[in-house]
Amino acid sequence: MLRQRTVSAAILIPPLLVALLLGGPWIVAVVAAATALAAFEVFQLLRAAGYPSLSWLGIVFAVALVLDPAIGRNIDPSGMLLLAVGSILAAVGAFTRIDPREGLPTWFATVFGAVYASLLGFIVRLGHEAPALPAGAPLASLGGERGWIALLVLGVWAYDTGAYFAGKRFGRQRFLTHLSPSKTYAGLVGGIVAATIVVAFVLIGLGQSAVGAIVLGPLLSLAAQAGDLAESMLKRAAGAKDSGRLIPGHGGILDRVDSFLFAAPVVTLYVIAAFR
What are the average pLDDT values for consecutive 10-residue runs of the chain, which has 276 residues? Predict the structure, then answer.
């Protein structure tokens, strides 16, 4: 497991660091590419689970949902118009299925798969909603966009790492074993503690009070864990061990970003609630 994490990090960290260093459209480009790959894997899993879909339409729909806040904020900041258009196109595509009992799940699965994968786009939304950093903040040079995205990334990684080591050392009692047999309460607590500590330090770097980590740390942690379990449920339904073969022997892109799918919206909501 540790080797898997190390290999995954070696492959995925460089483009992420480049995007964070350059900011702006580079972050959008990396997130959009990751969303397209994740959506492809989602539709493969849905198909294996017995849910037909219009996969290529769904992939385009997912990427469009990610790009929407980057290029269409003045047209439809909420994204609801694009969601409506995509849902309509998926329904029209499903009309081509002769049996309505196949057409209906095709429509549902196409919309679900696109929306699920597009949750990664909240990384872009987080950057847009992030407040400007105080001039004297230690990480002021990063700016609000890159600073808060860095908090999200480091917080999720801290939770994942803390949960792994605490679970391995102290894990006895497991939970939700029907979804993932390796999850333990000790791992959950260890991950929350690790993430909260890291979030506290990053908040200080962003010129914010470390007290905010008391709320944001556990929220981010629980969202990350829920994202991991949601993907596990999808893989269990599909009878698959990994989401794909992007990283030979180490799974697909969805296996690497599943926690961010739920954590990114939660951190974005925190920023909106705290700074508006």
Answer: 54 71 86 95 96 96 89 66 94 95 96 97 92 92 92 94 90 84 91 97 96 97 96 95 74 90 97 91
- Kindly report whether the global pTM for this prediction surpasses the value 0.85: yes
35 within 8 A of 120, measured Cβ to Cβ? yes
- Are residues 231 and 255 in contact, defined by beta-carbon separation less than 8 angstroms? yes
Tell me the C-alpha distance between 83 and 61, whole Å. 8
For 157, how many CA atoms within 13 A lie in the half-sphere containing its CB? Answer: 14
SS percent in the chain: helix, strand, coil, step 5? 75, 0, 25
Question: Residues 6 or more apart from 15 whose CB is under 8 A from it?
Answer: 30
Report how far residue 73's alpha carbon sits from residue 66's, in angstroms, rounded to the nearest whole number.
12
d(CA 267, CA 269): 5
| CA dist., res. 44 & res. 38, Å (int) | 10
Number of H helices, E strands in the chain: 10, 0
Q: What is the number of alpha carbons within 13 Å of residue 233 lying toward its C-beta?
A: 7
